[in-house]
Amino acid sequence: MKEKEDSSIAMAEGDGEGVTLGDLKKKMADFAKERDWDQFHSPRNLLLALVGEVGELSEIFQWRGEVPRGLPGWDEKEKEHLGEELSDVLLYLVRLADVCGVDLGGAALRKMEINARKYPVQYCKGSSKKYIHYASENSGSNGSTDEL
Amino acid sequence: MKEKEDSSIAMAEGDGEGVTLGDLKKKMADFAKERDWDQFHSPRNLLLALVGEVGELSEIFQWRGEVPRGLPGWDEKEKEHLGEELSDVLLYLVRLADVCGVDLGGAALRKMEINARKYPVQYCKGSSKKYIHYASENSGSNGSTDEL
Amino acid sequence: MKEKEDSSIAMAEGDGEGVTLGDLKKKMADFAKERDWDQFHSPRNLLLALVGEVGELSEIFQWRGEVPRGLPGWDEKEKEHLGEELSDVLLYLVRLADVCGVDLGGAALRKMEINARKYPVQYCKGSSKKYIHYASENSGSNGSTDEL
Amino acid sequence: MKEKEDSSIAMAEGDGEGVTLGDLKKKMADFAKERDWDQFHSPRNLLLALVGEVGELSEIFQWRGEVPRGLPGWDEKEKEHLGEELSDVLLYLVRLADVCGVDLGGAALRKMEINARKYPVQYCKGSSKKYIHYASENSGSNGSTDEL
């Protein structure tokens, strides 16, 4: 399949722009099936595994104080470790969506359209207040961050 | 724009299998740029936003006890809400990888290859012990879950 | 105060009922000061460290499916590991509150009074609907879990 | 009851230094029992509720960039909201330990002794390398943060 070929190429080149959520979903499903590990992949087991990976990701950033975009000064080993932890979160997220029967790619596109309608450019541009409002709305916060 | 058209089609059909990580990365970058919100998208800000979304996702599952695969008995509104929270985690994860300069798709494919080499089928098949070992290794745990 | 004296004994006896939040706050502050580690204990550093520990805690429960109260079948080593991870979360939480200037003990008592007023026994007793409502309110959810 | 009186005083004065983990454990147990909510307080339900609260806590800090100790510039409403979210995490943590049969206070004191033995002052003082090592050890990281 064309996408599959792209994936292998992408991997070889370290360029994963063309990797689809369908690719990852299938690879994760095959990986579990081959090892007879579906028995362990219940929604809440996978959710807690995801939380564990988010913890690992947080550990990478925990003692650094503010970190600039692009991670200036990080060596290759640190960046590789970051890529692995980001991947672990992504892979469990994709797997969780799959076992829940959620079309993650479609849901993500819909969520972005909802956000785009909710926060029109002319209304929100350059406004941190609007941003915080957007952010707190978006994250289901009780809104008290509007006070910022 | 071509990608936009593809996205709308995918969305219209509710089939997001073909959505690429590159699509989501670009859409998130455009969304932030149009609103002048790049100023808020530092790595640790996005990481904490991701943690906030993981919290929202956990709230959906928190009082239900064990939840079977496929979510039998969940109504459409619940499933839609789940799709939105899964999407919020995915979108912040994609954005975090982008501002860190990490090729998330490539890193995910590499991580799956590492896992495949590390846990050969013939060695791991149907073994929960190996699975737990795999899981604890994979999640960077101190390994004491090997006692399970 | 008798309970205070019991702290050291408590440790020996494994009875920590009398341990106060003030005890833990002071011990954590002294620990950091003696090692000149205050420089690393900024609020967001500690928050990310807390998230890391919550991840470790989740790993203990991640592959077990539902776990009954009292953890029947867990061996001593597993329970000890659980105690350590619960402690790591507690200690970073106490430290985070301290560097933020929050009186955690007082805040916790106030929060329990708020909850008690908000959910009078006669109104909530035995009602999972009220419970879910309580839970979603309490957790600042966007309320869609009310649909449960 | 003596403890209740102490609690109210502590609360009235906004001084919770003397609040014990036993106080909070008992109050949480009574609160659940009075409302017949023990049925919802399984270990993994409480763990996911804890993760939800950690998400709420993270939302408070997510868009602020680095935050100095003492939270200069935060208004009373923001600090009160922070106190409530810190409390929600603490209360679910205490409740989780209780339903797991873990003596949280004793475990916390033991964990601090372990840390003190593991990181002697003369060895660790003022050393961020040792600190990172301590931190990564402590948090069960795979140690690659030693590269920092």
N/C terminus separation of chain A = 50 Å
- SSE arrangement of chain A, N to C: HHHHHHH
CATH architecture of the largest domain in chain A: Orthogonal Bundle
Largest interface between protein chains, with number of residues from each side: C-D, 92 and 91 residues
CATH class of the largest domain in chain A: Mainly Alpha
What quaternary form is this?
A: homotetramer
Principal-axes shape call of chain A: globular
Subunit structure (chains A, B, C, D): Homotetramer.
Protein name (chains A, B, C, D): dCTP pyrophosphatase 1
Cofactor (chains A, B, C, D): Mg(2+)
Enzyme class (chains A, B, C, D): hydrolase
Would you give an account of this structure?
The structure is a homotetramer of 148-residue chains. Chain A is mainly alpha-helical and 148 residues long. Chain A has two domains: 102 residues, Helix Hairpins (Orthogonal Bundle); 45 residues, no CATH class. Helix content of chain A is 67%, strand content 0%. The radius of gyration of chain A is 19 Å and the shape is globular. Chain A starts with a helix and ends in a 10-residue tail after the last helix. The N terminus and C terminus of chain A are likely disordered. Chains in contact: A-B, A-C, A-D, B-C, B-D, C-D.
Brief digest:
The structure is a homotetramer. Chain A has about 150 residues and is mainly α.
Map the helices and strands:
Four copies of one chain form a homotetramer.
Chain A lengths: L1 H12 L7 H14 L8 H19 L14 H24 L4 H15 L2 H4 L3 H11 L10
Keywords:
67% helix, homotetramer, 2 domains, Helix Hairpins, disordered C terminus, mainly alpha, disordered N terminus, 148 residues
